[in-house]
Design brief:
45% of the residues lie in helices and 1% in strands. By secondary structure, the protein is mainly alpha-helical. A two-stranded antiparallel ribbon has the order 1-2.
């Protein structure tokens, strides 16, 4: 697998199914449920035809990751664990589990284990998958960079595999998966991961001691970047030695802060929100153009859901019914056969309709307000 493909698969898998809807239900927000159902029915019809005999959704270079994505997408949209597509997919995932607790093939152990763990968590009625979830969480904890101490920029971060270069895409997925598995927010593993997330933010000071943050332009301040390890070959490096803030990574960082218990009044959350308000869009993935667009939509939806605001105000004060806007962005991009595909993103994996469609379906699960209790 190419370096670019590994990077994108990291981006593509990041941030899946952890976290309940945080927003309160409100009248006249979100899309028409009938329209959502029509879009979902077309999507599920497409994916049902793409499932292999063994229950998997094989996409070259992704291991069991897409299978987990599809299972989670069905589960989050109201399908039960006994649904034929879901049950076969979960059985295929269970066969990918190793004795060490990881769920992977030859590579991308953090990503595919995290995605699979969250799919099993969604399906874990009656504790059927307790053992798999417990073992997977233990495996994930063993992938975190801790040996070099908290003065090392890598500390608390997670890469593709044990010992790999850590990045925010991997680390935020790690956070999602551990919280989904029941690990408490004050667990040392999560607090260490949060320290790494801090170091990805263009916010110099007590939470980020890295030099690049001090070189952030006004346009980058408050946002988050892919990794704080400055590399001369990085496409995100600025002329002054800073690192550009990216849309998908900033939403991933915001979500990680909120999931890990950081208060909404904390300066990290406020700074990330200020960046998001200035760059609010569903036309592209800010800083990346059309690359990783469906990953961006999913991370956008999860972060906004965690924030809990039905109407989100941008930097100009314009309020957005973000659920409805997100749904409309997906609806207009759905193909006639029910799939989604990002043909302009051949480098980053979303040219695979199975992967893009799974992400779009996961995103749709955040497009409707939670039901009133």
């Amino acid at each position: 697998m190419s370096t670019a493909m590994r990077t994108v698969w990291g981006v593509v898998l990041a941030g899946l199914v952890v976290g309940p809807h945080a927003a309160s239900a409100a009248d006249n927000v979100g899309p028409d449920p009938k329209e959502v159902k029509a879009v979902l029915d077309k999507a599920t019809g497409y994916l049902k035809k793409r499932q292999a005999e063994d229950g998997s959704f094989p996409v070259k270079g992704t291991g069991p990751g897409v299978t987990a994505l599809v299972a989670a997408a069905f589960l989050r949209n109201g399908y039960g664990a006994d649904d034929p597509v879901v049950s076969k997919a979960l059985a295929a995932l269970a066969k990918s589990a190793h004795d060490d607790g990881g769920i992977y093939d030859e590579r991308l152990a953090n990503y595919t284990t995290s995605v699979a763990l969250m799919a099993f968590t969604e399906a874990n009625a009656g504790g059927k998958y307790d053992a798999i979830i417990k073992n997977a969480a233990k495996f994930l904890k063993g992938l975190q960079h801790i040996e070099s101490g908290d003065e090392d920029v890598k500390f608390g971060g997670v890469g593709y595999d044990k010992g790999g270069r850590p990045d925010l895409s991997n680390t935020q997925l790690y956070i999602d998966a551990l919280i989904a598995s029941g690990v408490p927010k004050d667990d040392p593993a999560l607090q260490r991961a949060l320290k790494f997330v801090n170091r990805c933010q263009n916010l110099p000071g007590e939470t980020n001691d890295q030099a690049f943050a001090k070189k952030a332009t006004d346009d980058d301040k408050g946002g988050l970047t892919y990794t704080p390890l400055v590399d001369d070959k990085s496409p995100y490096k600025t002329a002054d030695g800073g690192l550009r803030s990216l849309g998908g990574m900033t939403y991933a960082g915001l979500k990680s802060f909120l999931y890990a218990g950081v208060d909404k009044e904390d300066k990290r959350v406020k700074a990330a929100l200020n960046w998001i308000r200035k760059h609010y869009t569903l036309d592209e993935n800010p800083g990346m153009g059309q690359a990783g667009l469906y990953y961006y939509y999913h991370t956008f939806g999860k972060a906004m859901d965690a924030l809990g605001e039905d109407q989100f105000a941008d930097a100009d004060g314009k309020k957005h019914d973000w659920r409805k806007e997100l749904f409309e962005a997906l609806k207009k991009r759905q193909q006639a056969d029910g799939s989604w595909v990002n043909e302009k993103d051949k480098q980053f994996g979303e040219a695979s309709p199975e992967l893009a469609t799974a992400f779009a379906m996961l995103t749709l699960s955040y497009c409707q307000p939670p039901k009133k209790k």
